[in-house]
Amino acid sequence: MAEMTELTERQEKILNxxxxxxxxxxxxxxxRTISKNSDLNLSSATIRNEMSDLEELGYIxxxxxxxxxxxxxxxxxxxxxxxxxxxxxxxxxxxxxxxERTDQxxxxxxxxxxxxANSTQYATMIxxxxxxxxxxxxxxxxxxxxxxLLSVVVMDGNVVRNRIIKxxxxxxxxxxxxxxxxxxxxxxxxxxxxxxxALIQKMRQNAGxxxxxxxxxxxxxxxxxxxxxxxxxxxxxxxxxxxxxxxSDSEKASHLISAFEDKGELKDLIEDIESxxxxxxxxxxxxxxxDIPSMQDCSVVTAKYDLGDGFKGTIGILGPKRMDYENVxxxxxxxxxxxxxxxxxxxxxxxxxxxxIGKKEL
Amino acid sequence: MAEMTELTERQEKILNxxxxxxxxxxxxxxxRTISKNSDLNLSSATIRNEMSDLEELGYIxxxxxxxxxxxxxxxxxxxxxxxxxxxxxxxxxxxxxxxERTDQxxxxxxxxxxxxANSTQYATMIxxxxxxxxxxxxxxxxxxxxxxLLSVVVMDGNVVRNRIIKxxxxxxxxxxxxxxxxxxxxxxxxxxxxxxxALIQKMRQNAGxxxxxxxxxxxxxxxxxxxxxxxxxxxxxxxxxxxxxxxSDSEKASHLISAFEDKGELKDLIEDIESxxxxxxxxxxxxxxxDIPSMQDCSVVTAKYDLGDGFKGTIGILGPKRMDYENVxxxxxxxxxxxxxxxxxxxxxxxxxxxxIGKKEL
DNA sequence: TGTTAGCACTCCTAACATTTGAGTGCTAAC
DNA sequence: GTTAGCACTCAAATGTTAGGAGTGCTAACA
Lengths: 362, 362
Fold this sequence. Notes:
Two copies of one chain form a homodimer.
Chain A: H1 9-25, H2 31-37, H3 44-57, E1 60-61, E2 70-71, H4 73-83, E3 95-99, H5 105-120, E4 123-127, E5 136-145, E6 148-155, E7 159-166, H6 173-187, H7 197-207, H8 211-226, E8 233-236, H9 250-262, H10 264-275, E9 284-288, E10 298-306, E11 312-320, H11 325-346, E12 354-359
Antiparallel strand pairs in A: 1-2, 3-12, 4-8, 4-11, 5-6, 6-7, 9-10, 10-11
Helix pairs in contact in A: 1-4, 2-3, 7-8
Chain A binds a DNA duplex through residues 28, 30-32, 42-46, 48-49, 51-52, 62-69.
């Protein structure tokens, strides 16, 4: 960490003006502009001296010899961490953005990214909660025909998974009834993580004549729950990157859009982010430029969400380095509280509405 | 239709050379090039005369006064319909594209587009079969708790849909058992299309004391089957369009990628295509440029697939107008036969789990 | 000592001019 | 009917120039 004295107050002010100006215009900003646009009455010459120092300290840089200055990654970082105003109180004035009522988790997530992409004009992503941590509420086996068994698992939040299990031997209706009893009494309230070898052993002992089949079925049920697409990621607004010239040349655009298309890279990214433990007050983090090696020209703002009952995930917003951090962070913060409301208002996530996700102009 | 005599044999040859050359290079092709690259021994001057005629007839055009010629939409059309060689016999030599065996419809489709995008280097899409036409094999209601009923429907190809139904009154286990019997005897073998008012009436009459609830449940089951995402479309390789300079300027790329991102436009497109009845021998069609108004700079090659049991859909490949029609059409033809094989070899497309997320009434 | 005005210098950008070359159309001769 | 030759066109590449925004440095000033 830099010591508090690294920058004088005046330097901070100048840096602030530079960054704010650059966020707006996207053009390098020169000493004269600052001299005019700032309330500190200084001549351009003085500003130049300070800028020279700021450059030496690594907060700003010159694209070429006779251009104005633009913020460096370090500059952005300082801005986000110290300079940026957090005007939480204004949230309520903000234009309402409505997430329609929906009754389905997956659908809600898709809607959230869409709304967010729309209101921020950046590319957005959201990771679906890992099913592993969600509790089983109800299990049901039923015979589709002689050698096929349908297993359905209902979990918290009415997340339902199902699979068809192929059997060697056929089971009588009575058998199935008993199996269902056995499964429900033993599995209700557990998560996938809890379905381990010890449990299977214990159940086999209680299973009597079903001991043989119980292991197979349990394994299948664990598989049923995890499905295959564990940790789906939903994205939206990938094409927003075309709005920012610094990202829309073929090379970069192609790479970014690819990442949003096949999601493998995003998955890794989100995993990294989630493992990145850090006692951040509201779970919002900002990655600037080289913080994420594969996306050097971008910044990513992320927030973790937690709807209770094990429904946890991460939201990410990707834009150019000169993205409007203030606005984005404000919107994320608001979204988080709104998502929290859902849980409180309807007892179960995925059962109700999100309303009034804020949006605001500069 | 143009009369057969519109083009002389020589003109056809020249047109052929122009198009082939342009497909390869993407550059306008001039008279000298043709004179050298063709087996007909003619001077560039002669070629020029012929080209002048071809231009007048609308088969080729000049980007600007002193450039070579490029094919017009009409030219491409003529090429695809008459000039292009259909070397079916070579199919076997073609590099095999492997679609891994998979037991899940959805997964298979995703894989197919991916493989196809990879092997053609164009953007690809595939429409999932409409569930409406698939037959119900098995229905199962079960009580999750006092006021929630889980309905699961298994259809041909082991496509599974489910939904949580909210009830006012609670049902005894016996009730549910009887309801299940009733539903299965009446619905097995039907498609969603068959679940209409007449059927509901008939079932109510047979339902005795359940008459009240049967309509509600049936309606929900119809809804269950259709889910919400009817006619999902899977896409892949959208970023391939960056490989073709004529499509990769911000404007066009942005539009195309958007179309592939939110799919609404593609859905309309595929609907148009599917309604486009035309006794084409193998169901492969080529849309060039203005044939699809919203995609003037592209061509789209489409093929219908039919896996039996009502599993029908459309595959589409989108590329620049100068796409390699020959190769694309060959690959589509091959894919079609391969898809047929999958069906035969495993009896049913999709033999195992389909995931779903529970749904609740508003 | 910090601030400022002035000035020379750099270097990007836009505009304009020039050159080059591929390609054409036309004409006259074979 | 075919071809060689020639004048012409025009896009793209290259070169040139002027303008301007911005800088660093220095000397003067409060």
